[in-house]
């Protein structure tokens, strides 16, 4: 059970190496509700980007944004849409209105 005090999490330095070039994620500072599943969300979103033909930078940005979004959702069940992830990715703000 989490207290009302939220932990601050800094997500950074996630990268992909493609054709001799590194693609690095932006840094996000998040007040986390729960860290369970953030890595799984990153991995799933990374694969989603690969399957859907995202360019390498978009893939990394999408994956980190999905992971950041999961940090704001309590419990294991992460029901978000691609559009929710794009909102985080494109807004430069880690607060999501749903």
Explain how this protein is built:
The protein has 98 residues and is α+β, with helices and mostly antiparallel strands. The chain has helices spanning 38-51, 56-71, 82-91, and strands at 7-11, 15-18, 21-24, 28-32. It has a two-stranded antiparallel sheet with strand order 1-4. A two-stranded antiparallel sheet has the order 2-3. The chain is globular, with a radius of gyration of 13 Å. The two termini are 23 Å apart. 26% of the residues are buried.
SSE layout and pairing:
Blueprint: E1 7-11, E2 15-18, E3 21-24, E4 28-32, H1 38-51, H2 56-71, H3 82-91
Antiparallel strand pairs: 1-4, 2-3
Helix pairs in contact: 1-2, 2-3
Question: What labels would you give this structure?
Answer:
alpha+beta; two-stranded antiparallel ribbon; 3 helices; globular
Which geometry do the CA atoms define? globular
Strand content: 15-25%
Helical residue percent band: 40-55%
Q: What would the average pLDDT be, to the nearest integer?
A: 77
Low-confidence stretches: 1-8
> Structural class from helices and strands?
alpha+beta
How many H/I helices? 3
Q: Strand arrangement, largest sheet?
A: 1-4
**What's the helix-strand series?**
EEEEHHH
Question: What is the CA-atom radius of gyration, in angstroms?
Answer: 13 Å
The main sheet comes to: 2 strands, antiparallel
Number of strands: 4
Distance between the termini: 23 Å
């Amino acid at each position: 059970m989490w207290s009302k005090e939220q932990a601050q999490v800094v997500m950074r330095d996630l990268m992909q190496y493609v054709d001799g070039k590194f693609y690095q994620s932006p840094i996000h500072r998040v007040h986390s509700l729960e860290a369970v599943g953030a890595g799984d969300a990153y991995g799933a979103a990374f694969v989603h980007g690969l399957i859907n033909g995202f360019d390498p930078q978009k893939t990394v940005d999408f994956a980190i944004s999905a992971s950041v979004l999961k940090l704001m959702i309590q419990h294991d069940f992460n029901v978000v849409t691609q559009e929710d992830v794009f909102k985080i990715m494109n807004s430069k703000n880690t607060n999501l209105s749903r």
